[in-house]
Amino acid sequence: LADKEELAGTQAALEVIPPGDVQLWWAGKELFPEKALGDDVGRNEKTKIGVKMQKRGQGAPSREPVVDPEAQKQMMAYAYRKQEEWKKLEAAEDDAYLN
Q1: Three-state secondary structure along 21-78?
Q2: What region, left, alpha or beta, does residue 71 occupy, with left being phi > 0 and alpha being psi -120 to 50 degrees?
Q3: pLDDT of 7-18, one tens digit each?
Q4: Which whole-number Å values give the CA distances from 62 to 3, 46, 50, 56, in the listed order?
Q5: 31-75, pLDDT tens digit by residue?
């Protein structure tokens, strides 16, 4: 393989960024080619980083959500049920002295 693939006329051709027009981003910081990677990441040899590529001039890429929307809905529903349960328990405790 000569590291060449014919992408003309495909959707993947729109996603190709020429090497001179790319910016690398990690942890919200741009990684510059003239700086050593260890200056930004640190000296730990076991560090694994995920770098995002962006076209030059577009700024930092958007952050990915920590949890997916479905899991977030489930967590919110659980928290709401617990909150309602606590309200019922507090109301029951307030009336307990009447017995």
Answers
A1: HEEEEECCEEECCCCCHHHHHCCCCCCCCCCEEEECCCCCCCCCCCCCHHHHHHHHHH
A2: alpha
A3: 777 776 667 777
A4: 29, 26, 14, 15
A5: 888 888 888 888 888 888 888 888 888 877 877 778 888 999 999
> What residues contact 51, with CB distance under 8 A and at least 6 apart?
24, 25, 26, 31
CA distance 33 to 24: 9
Residue 37 identity: L
- End-to-end CA separation in angstroms for the chain: 84
1 pLDDT exceeds 50?
Answer: no
Rounded Cα gap, residues 54 and 39, in angstroms:
21
Structure tokens belonging to residue 16: 């190709």
